[in-house]
Write a structure and sequence with these properties.
Helix content: 25-40%
Radius of gyration: 24 Å
Mean pLDDT: 90
Low-confidence stretches: none
Number of domains: 3
CATH architecture of the largest domain: Alpha-Beta Complex
CATH superfamily of the largest domain: DNA methylase specificity domains
Length: about 450
């Protein structure tokens, strides 16, 4: 990309990244708003972590105080699916990074510029060095502030203020310089009401998914807590040569001692996946129609913690990568082939019918199983452990379509499958409605800025 900047546009930075046209456009539009404040003036305190050497005190525990990382932050959502824990002693020492309700959390590294408000009644928590903790004044609503920071006018400011050539990050003092439009408190509260409702739906969805997952394992009589990997283990040479696999991962004890045993003890018939599902390869080449717009779903669009497909980009055919090959249909299960992405399993929703998917997915379509039950199967450790055992390759370890077809699947009754599937349908409905509320809130704030509404 080539662009030029006039001398009058120069600010305190002289790096080209700071003057990207998108950033300039956003700042020019934002500065037209009649009531602007620097974030520092709207906060009582902006805290991080304290001395960086304090990171040496952080040792993860099996239980204890929740320790929030950037991975747990989403736009106006704190997701504790994969949360880590620290001891109470460490929590007391790291007093600067304690998380309290009504605080706004902002990611300063990793995925930059993600903001969420800590809801009322949130459990005792701490957070890492990559998250800024904003204790705000009464002049601004925390939910409005986090919504603004997540919209294009907030997020692009954070990206613009970031520094670093390899791992970009925003320094704590620069957070104070973010420009905030301040509409009436009535308007702010109207946005806050939508975010609070969305958060409630997200909580409902999380509880429903946890309940469904427990029910799924109960139906199959599987104790998921036994899927524990050991760092050091041994096997006998006969097992190595029988499988003709010489990689240690294949012979992990959790696979040998529990997965097949658990499958056999479900009490249901076991069938190969190929008997229960089909694997359509609806191929296309978007680049043959270079000006036609397509919706492209890649691995990064699947949220591994929720199974949702988010942030799908609409691109012209000539912009499509070579991996954009698969025509998706509603009800397809998307299963990643790469070892490091096996959590990125999703169910294609109605609104993405006809979208184009990456060839990094296997597309699985049920012949006899309920869609929601099949989705839960691939999200379960039973299927992931089987796939992990079969992947081959040292750099880009991946499973083959033959590996997928040979996976063993327990087949409960139609009634049991239907119950799981109905709950998954409701789970996705709650997630979808919550996401819609968050998107409406973002667009509302952007409209206020562009129409100068105070």
């Amino acid at each position: 990309m080539t662009y030029e900047v006039s001398y009058s546009q120069l600010e305190s930075r002289i790096d080209a990244e700071f003057y990207q046209p998108e950033y300039i456009t956003v700042m020019d539009e934002l500065r037209k708003y009649p009531n602007l404040e620097n974030l520092g003036a709207l906060c009582k305190t902006i805290k991080s972590f304290g001395a960086y050497s304090l990171c040496n005190l952080v040792h993860y525990e099996q239980s204890g105080i929740h320790f929030i990382r950037v991975e747990n932050l989403k736009a106006n959502e704190i997701d504790l699916t994969d949360v880590k824990y620290i001891s109470k002693i460490t929590h007391r020492i790291l007093h600067k990074s304690k998380v309290t309700e009504a605080m706004v959390l902002l990611s300063m590294a990793g995925t930059l510029g993600i903001a969420a408000t800590v809801p009322s009644g949130f459990m005792e928590c701490n957070s890492n060095q990559d998250i800024a903790k904003l204790v705000i004044s009464e002049r601004i609503d925390p939910y409005y502030l986090s919504t603004f920071l997540n919209c294009k006018y907030g997020r692009n400011q954070v990206l613009r203020l970031a520094t670093g050539s390899t791992r970009r990050h925003i320094l704590l003092y620069a957070v104070s310089d973010i420009i905030i439009p301040v509409p009436s408190m009535e308007k702010q509260k109207s946005v806050a009401a939508k975010i609070i409702l969305a958060n409630k739906m997200q909580d409902q969805a999380r509880r429903l998914y946890s309940q469904t997952e427990r029910q799924f394992y109960d139906i199959l009589s599987v104790d998921s807590s036994k899927f524990q990997s050991k760092e050091v283990f041994e096997t006998v040479s006969s097992d190595v040569f029988d499988a003709m696999r010489f990689d240690a991962e294949y012979h992990r004890p959790s696979l040998q001692r529990y997965v097949l045993k658990a499958l056999k003890e479900t009490g249901f018939s076991l069938k190969k996946l190929a008997e229960l599902a089909e694997f359509p390869r609806r191929l296309t080449d978007p680049r043959k129609d270079p000006h036609k717009k397509i919706r492209y779903v890649e691995l990064a669009n699947v949220d591994p913690s929720t199974g949702e497909i988010r942030g799908v980009s609409e691109i012209a055919g000539h912009e499509a990568p070579s991996r954009a090959k698969l025509v998706l249909k509603k009800g397809d299960i998307l299963v990643p082939s790469l070892l490091g992405s096996l959590d990125n399993v999703s169910l294609v929703p109605d609104e993405l019918d006809g979208a184009i998917g990456s060839s990094g997915f296997f597309v699985v379509r049920s012949k006899t199983l309920q869609e929601g039950f099949l989705f839960m199967l691939f999200r379960s450790r039973l299927m992931k452990e089987q796939l992990e055992q079969k992947v081959a390759g040292s750099i880009m370890a991946a499973a083959s379509s033959k590996d997928l077809e040979n996976l063993l699947v327990p087949v409960p009754s139609d009634e049991q499958q239907r119950e799981i599937s109905c709950q998954i349908t409701e789970y996705f409905r709650l997630r979808r409605e919550a996401t819609h509320l968050l998107e409406i809130s973002n667009h509302t704030v952007e409209d206020w800025i562009e129409s100068r509404q105070v």
